[in-house]
Design goal:
The chain is α+β, with helices and mostly antiparallel strands and about 130 residues long. It has one domain: Thiol Ester Dehydrase, Chain A, CATH 3.10.129. About 20% of the residues lie in helices and about 45% in strands. It is built from 2 helices and 6 strands; from the N terminus they run H-E-E-H-E-E-E-E. The chain has a 6-stranded antiparallel sheet. A hairpin with a 4-residue loop joins strand 5 and strand 6. The longest helix has 19 residues. The protein is globular and about 45 Å long. The N terminus is likely disordered. One of its GO terms (molecular function) is thiolester hydrolase activity. This is Thioesterase domain-containing protein. InterPro entries: HotDog_dom_sf, Thioestr_dom.
Length: about 130
């Protein structure tokens, strides 16, 4: 399964998501994000709900890649912590599968500046579902 070919939907372009790498051993995906100007608040950072979208994207694609494209997670709960004002980008996101069961999946993601400063973290509890077709 090639990285960029798996990314479908207008939301991927909207949030400036780009596949970088997937490590099948640790089930960790690395993605790059670049927020468009419309995502930036008067404070100069990315709006919080949109940051959650970056983290959700990284967590979701970690599971999709870990299941070789067979499944996609359906979130039951997402918890996010903002550690700093999130600059427009470019940003690096890392999502990983913490634990995958038949009925529930635990996922996590982190968002970093390019110099490695942690900016935000999220966890998700989700259920595995067949990956929807395009």
């Amino acid at each position: 399964m090639s990285g960029i070919d798996t990314y479908q939907g207008a939301h991927v372009a909207l949030i400036g998501a780009e596949f970088v790498d997937f490590d099948p051993v640790t089930e960790t995906i690395t993605m790059r994000f670049h927020a468009p100007d419309s995502f930036i608040t008067p404070r100069g950072g990315v709006q919080g709900g949109l940051v959650a979208g970056f983290l959700d994207e990284a967590m979701g694609w970690a599971h999709v890649h870990a299941t070789k494209g067979e499944e996609a997670p359906l979130n039951l709960e997402i918890s996010m912590t903002l550690l700093s004002l999130i600059p427009p980008g470019p940003l690096l996101g890392k999502g990983r599968v913490v634990r995958r069961g038949r009925r529930v999946i635990f996922l996590e993601a982190e968002l970093f500046s390019l110099d490695g400063k942690p900016l935000a973290r999220a966890t998700s509890t989700a259920i595995p579902t067949p990956k929807p077709s395009a």
